Amino acid sequence: MEELIKTSEVLWRDVYALKKGERAGIGFTLIPTQYLIGHPLEDYLDSYSIIWAMTQAAKKVAEPIMSAYTFRSSMLEKSERISELRAKRYSRSTKNYQNY
Description:
Layout: H1 2-15, E1 23-29, H2 41-59, E2 63-69, E3 88-91, E4 96-99
Parallel strand pairs: 1-2
Antiparallel strand pairs: 3-4
């Protein structure tokens, strides 16, 4: 991971020319469902490691902002709202799941 963070520092400094105090946007796709997955699962997990390293390197100089989006097989397909993907907890009293 240390090598990945050092590489990220070089990218921010030499490729993106990130200056002190700037905002740096970092986006990634959430893992798609099994029937839409186009790459091996390891590829998606590797991208999360890269995003984490890029965020940690950017924090030393700037303000990193992370965002995520759901995968769509077509631009015409209705997207799933990220706000609807929140965690749920099981309530013993009502015996169903509730939003946090």
